[in-house]
# Entry
Amino acid sequence: MATHVQGVVVREPRGPVSIETIVVPDPGPGEAVVDVAACGVCHTDLHYAEGGINDEFPFLLGHEAAGTVSAVGDGVTEVQPGDFVVLNWRAVCGQCRACSRGRPQYCFATHNATQAMTLRDGTVLTPALGIGAFAEKALVAAGQCTKVSAEAPPEVAGLLGCGVMAGLGAAINTGGVTRGDSVAVIGCGGVGAAAIAGANLAGAHTIIAVDIDDRKLETARRFGATHVVNSATVDPVEAIRGLTHGNGADVVIDAVGIPATFEQAFYSRDLAGTVVLVGVPRPDMRIDLPLLDVFGRGGALKSSWYGDCLPSRDFPMLIDLYLQDRLDLGSFVSERIGLDEIPAAFQRMQAGDVLRSVVML
Ligand SMILES: NC(=O)c1ccc[n+]([C@@H]2O[C@H](COP(=O)([O-])OP(=O)(O)OC[C@H]3O[C@@H](n4cnc5c(N)ncnc54)[C@H](O)[C@@H]3O)[C@@H](O)[C@H]2O)c1
Ligand SMILES: [Zn+2]
Ligand SMILES: [Zn+2]
# Structure
C-alpha cells in the first residue's frame, strides 16, 4: 500500500515550486521510508530548480533532513522503525574501486532507493540528491539513514545531511585543517560558516572569513572567525596575505564556487597550501590560470563533495559534539518554516537574509 503525502515539486527549469500529492511506495528490499521531521533549504535545491544540476525534471526537492524511520523493506538490518536518523546522500556500496581500497568516503556507486516516488498520475519524480525530503515521507535506500542520538532536535540534526556537513568536512576532511593552521573561507553562507566552525573545531590559529555581506561576516565571528574581510570593498587576496604575515593562508576554502572566488582562493593561499572548492559551479563556468602559477605555487587544488564525509563515522560524532556544547549547530537555524514558504525561503537565501531556513513537517 503506497502512501500519499504532500511534497514540493518543480516541473521545469525556473518553473514554479508547487506543493503536490506524492505517492510514496512501501519500502522494498533494502529500502526504508522515513517520516521527515525537518528539512533544511540548501542552495543546491535552488540549483536543481533552475536546471543547474541536470534536466531530469520534475524534481522532488529537499535533501537536508532528519526524521524517524517508519518502515523498512526486506533484508534491512542497518535501521528499524522508530530509529531517529539523518538522511545522507552517500550510502556507501562497499564494493566499488574506492570502497574496496578502504576509501568509502569517495564511494563511486552510492545507493538510492530502487523504487520511485511519483505524482498521482504515475510521473516519476527525481528526488534531489536521491532524497527528496520536502515531503512528509521519503523513500530512500536503508543505507541513506544514519542513526544519531534522538536528543538532538531534528532541525539541527538534519543540517548534517548536506550543507553543514559539506562545510565542516571541507575544512576537516578535505582541507585537513589542523592545530595552528591559518584558514580563509570565501563565502560565509551555511556552507562557509560551517567550514569556519570546522576550522575552529580542528584548532586553526587564524580563521579569516570573506564575504560581500557584512551580516554574514558578523555570523562568521560567532562560529569562530578571528578576522573578517568584506571583499566588496577590500581586495581579499591582499587582505588575507596581510593577515598571514604576507604569506597567504595554509588552507583556503571557496564556498561560493564561481571563477572569481576560485581565483581569489588560488592566490590567497600560502606556497604549498591547499585550495578546497566546495561551492558548486554552474556548467558554463571556466577558469583561466597561468599553468606556471599552478606549478610554481605547489600544494593542492581539491574539490570537496559532501565534505568527503563518511556519514556513519561523522554524523553521530558531530551530533555528540553538539550535545556536549562543543559544536554550535543550533546557530545555523535562522528560521523554522512550513512547506508553503519554500519559494520565499529561496528569496531570503538569495538576499542573504538567512543561514538556513528549515522546513518543519
Ligand atoms: N560540495 C558540496 O557537497 C556542497 C554541499 C552543499 C552546498 N554546496 C554549495 O555550496 C555553495 C554555498 O551554499 P550555501 O548554502 O552556503 O549558500 P548561501 O547562499 O547560503 O551562501 C553563499 C554565500 O556566499 C556569499 N557570496 C556570494 N558571492 C560572493 C563573492 N563573490 N565573494 C564572497 N562571497 C560571496 C553570499 O553573500 C553568501 O553569504 C553553493 O554553491 C552550494 O550549492 C556544496
Ligand atoms: Zn563504493
Ligand atoms: Zn545541499
About this structure: The mean pLDDT is 97.
